[in-house]
Amino acid sequence: MVDITEIYVHWYAGRSKSELAVSLGLDRKTVRKYLAPAEAAGLAPGGPPMGEADWNKLIRGWFPELLNTRLRQVTWSEIDRHRDFIEGLLGTVTVSTMPEAPRRSQVTVLRDEVEPGEEAQIDYGFLGQWINPRTGKRHRIWAFVMVLPCLRHMFVRPVLHLHQHAWTEAHVAAFRYFGGVPRRLVPDNLKTGVDKPDLYDPKINKAYAELATHYGALVDPARALKPKDKPRVERPMPYIRDSFWRGREFISIEHMQAEAITWAQTVAGRRPCRPLDGAAPITVFEAIEAAELLPLPPTPFVLARWSTATVGPDIHIKVGRTLYSVPWKLIGRRVDVRSTATMMQVFHDGQLVKTHAALEQGKRTDKSDYPPEKIAFQMRTPIWCRSQSSEVGDACREVVDQLLEVNALYRLRAAQGVLGLRKKYGDTRLEAACIRAIVVGDPSYRTIKGILIAGTEADPEPETSGDAGAAAFLHGPQQLFASAATTPGIADEFRDDQVHGDPEGSIR
């Protein structure tokens, strides 16, 4: 009676026969068989409200054989009355005409009763279409539902998307709602939670595994296409649609989620529950199960999005609308990316290889991720230039300092060019060329390069005339003495003037 009543309640709420068969684990022929009397009587989904008592009354009339389920004992005397009929069948009934024996697949194993705090069953259910009054756009709304099967207490959260972030966020909200964490989570084999379904070794995705580790829960996915593995979360979906969703208006998704919390506490949580002998789920939960849940961790869970990306030839990966650089040796490799509101981390083979501050849109590049020879020019800053010139010598440092003294960024390329000559000519020749350029008064890149090309950095310095830059018609002391040697008396007169302290005698 209970199972058949449930078929009618779901059907009357608007679920199709195919949906009923899948969610309740029944054959579609069985569903049609039990719904046939209601359809013949003119009943249809969406009619006047009907409770379980109303359905029970109708079902007793349609299926009177269900009223007496007492095991009947048959005596030999009763069998003897049908002796002639049985003897007549002995020659005609063969193995092929005997009713088919039950198959192994038809055997149903009853689930063990769940202890308080041990399990939560999780699934998504479609609620319906919603038009956002602010934008006028139509959206499909889904309900994330987590049910504690022991005492039927439930959490409901409407969502717009079925992506990984919404799945994780809903779990965090559910644990906060219950005030604790069930020890075992039984979700459906959704991609938001399970990467690879497997009966014995399902592969949980990184975001879900991170959440389970933080809260200390075990993720035990239901088998694919096996709704009986989580019946407590499958059955309330029509009730949620009828009681919470139908006929309500919402101004935003946030308003919808807040109303779902209120409904779960004041309506679903306060309803008389038959398996609980008519007690309200929330009352029994607070009295028995709340204390059995695992406590919430002292630190809040950091919501993260996990994704994969391939490192491009420009050493960047794309995460959302942002480009992030990674070490160049990973070009062409696939990496795992963990993104939070403040940080972006890149993992390769489980090892953290790069961390960036999060950026909503744009590009973040760490130049150290490039090969040194590819980024050498951009890495040669004024500080680098001064450091390298000191290794060459004092004259080279003086040249670089003069180049960078005024407008360092504008003259940076010239300083880099001077230091670039080390590779071809060596430190010794470069230092000598810098000395010669300083002496001639033109310590520029062009001059130093010209000296090195000509190979004149080692030539002796030109002798000075001794005239301190005087005009060409004034002769220095050497020329004077040379002339005096050929003119009698002049040299003697000059020497006398110097001895007697007359410095001007030489030009008198």
In short:
This protein has helices at 2-12, 17-24, 28-40, 52-62, 76-80, 83-89, 164-178, 206-215, 231-234, 237-245, 253-268, 281-289, 372-379, 382-392, 394-405, 408-420, 422-440, 445-454, 477-486, 490-499, and strands spanning 119-131, 138-148, 153-159, 184-186, 194-196, 203-204, 218-219, 305-310, 316-319, 321-325, 334-339, 343-348, 351-357, 361-364.
Describe what you observe in this structure.
With 508 residues, the chain is of the alpha+beta class. The chain folds into five domains: 2-66; 119-292, Nucleotidyltransferase, domain 5, CATH 3.30.420.10; 305-373, no CATH class; 380-454, no CATH class; 477-507, no CATH class. 42% of the residues lie in helices and 16% in strands. The protein contains 20 helices and 14 strands. The chain has helices at 2-12, 17-24, 28-40, 52-62, 76-80, 83-89, 164-178, 206-215, 231-234, 237-245, 253-268, 281-289, 372-379, 382-392, 394-405, 408-420, 422-440, 445-454, 477-486, 490-499; strands at 119-131, 138-148, 153-159, 184-186, 194-196, 203-204, 218-219, 305-310, 316-319, 321-325, 334-339, 343-348, 351-357, 361-364. The protein has a five-stranded mixed beta sheet with strand order 3-2-1-4-7, with helices on both faces. The chain has a four-stranded antiparallel beta sheet with strand order 8-11-12-13, with no helix packed on it. A hairpin with a 4-residue loop joins strand 2 and strand 3. Helix 2 packs across helix 3 and helix 15 runs antiparallel to helix 16. The longest helix has 19 residues, at 422-440. The protein is elongated and about 140 Å long. The protein starts with a helix and ends in a 9-residue tail after the last helix. Mean pLDDT is 79; it is low at 196-203 and 493-508.
